[in-house]
Amino acid sequence: MTTSLTMDRTSAAASPARVAIADDRAMLKAAADLTRDLVRPDPRIYWADLIVSALVGYGALAAAVVTPSAGWAILAGLVSMLALYRGMSMIHELTHVKHSALPGFRTGWNLLIGVPMMIPSFMYEGVHNLHHARTRYGTAEDPEYLPLALMKPWTLPVFVIVSLLAPIGLLIRFAILAPLSAVAPPLRTAVVARYSALSINPSFRRRMPTGEERTRWTLWEAATSVWAIALIAATVTGVLPLKAFVAFVLVGSGVALINQVRTLVAHLWENEGEVMTVTAQYLDSVNVPPPALLPALWAPIGLRYHALHHLLPGVPYHALGEAHRRLSAVLEPGSPYYKANYAGLPGLVGKLTIATLRPR
User: Fold this and answer.
1) DSSP letters along 120-182, please?
2) Strand partners of residue 285
3) Start and end of every Fatty acid desaturase domain (predicted)?
């Protein structure tokens, strides 16, 4: 589902032509050569991370509902938000990992996280890979890119605040639009094209699924639709206390908010639609490596190494830290590799805000 505000790219003010960035062969070669042994995902890490995140997330959510103390309820809600955010972030791994290397993991993730939180894996699979396509990144065909640094300053707070409505939008998508579109072909076309992708580019349109993808899509969409309808029905009839439903929505909104803030600083958002080299894409992306500690919370599952991920999309999240250490140990101080490393969230938000304030 498109989670951004409806902003057209024409709202980006014109800026002087940027100098094209050539690929840095030394960095690209080092990245490939030094990480060949890191590409295999470890099933033990993936499954343990998923199960613990789900147990902590739902357990804390239940605690937030039953505790009589407002303070403890807020604390439990925050724990639930962070744990479920970590679990939901694993949808990113599903788009890159070879499923034969993690048997059953897609199914397990959908059952534990995707369906209950109403973001089944088809909402990202077939979408995120376009963001990594060599000739799509940063262009109008990239579902995960907007030139935010070139837009008006007001777009940044709106971009973040609108994410709070995500749980309501997902309930509408799966409890109402999904069943209605099953019997109304024109509506189905619109639902698939416009409301079936976790993207931030409002002009992005999905194609109709075919073959095996269609089978998976139908299965998980039906399961999520049943869950969403049951959630609403249980609340309306009083089977599920209103407090529990509100807590679920608030935690979902919190997850969407922190993810949108993380998205805000995942790139510099300075490209106006030109095809970019791999090095240019890397420099337009962001790493927040150690010693910073907080990124482990707001950019989990390897997302703190987002720029490195664009160099090495096939390296699993649990190996990105080692890949970063290896590259940092061998690349010269003048390498562009270090130019994508930043200290933390406040500086990145400030950098983007200042960029929007520059006269064009």
Assistant:
1) -GGGTTTTHHHHT-TTTTTSTT-TT---GGGS-TTHHHHHHHGGGGHHHHHHIIIIIIHHHHT
2) 267
3) 71-338
**CB burial class (10 A; 0-12, 13-18, 19+) of residue 291?**
exposed
Between CA 102 and CA 318 the distance in angstroms is 14
Spatial CA neighbour of 197 closest among 95, 87, 300, 272: 95
Three-state DSSP class for residue 348: helix
Contact 131, 137 (CB under 8 A): yes
The model's pLDDT over 276-333, given as tens digits with 9 standing for 90+, comes to 999 999 999 999 999 999 999 999 999 999 999 999 999 999 999 999 999 999 999 9
What's the 3-state SS for 71-86?
Answer: HHHHHHHHHHHHHHHH
Which tokens hold the place of 281?
Answer: 């894409």
Eight-state DSSP code of residue 110: I
CA dist list (Å): 315 to 35, 36, 107:
8, 9, 21
Residues in the chain: 360
Q: CB–CB of 93/46 below 8 Å?
A: yes
CB atoms near residue 52 (< 10 Å): 13
Report CA-CA distances (Å) from 202 to 9, 89, 115, 135, 168: 9, 21, 24, 19, 18
Q: Helical H runs in the chain?
A: 25-33, 43-66, 70-89, 91-94, 105-109, 128-131, 155-161, 166-171, 178-181, 185-194, 211-236, 242-264, 278-283, 295-298, 306-311, 320-330, 345-357
Backbone phi, psi, residue 201, to 5°: -95, 105
Q: Where are the domains of the chain?
A: 9-357
Give tens-digit pLDDT for 108-135: 999 999 999 999 999 999 999 999 998 9
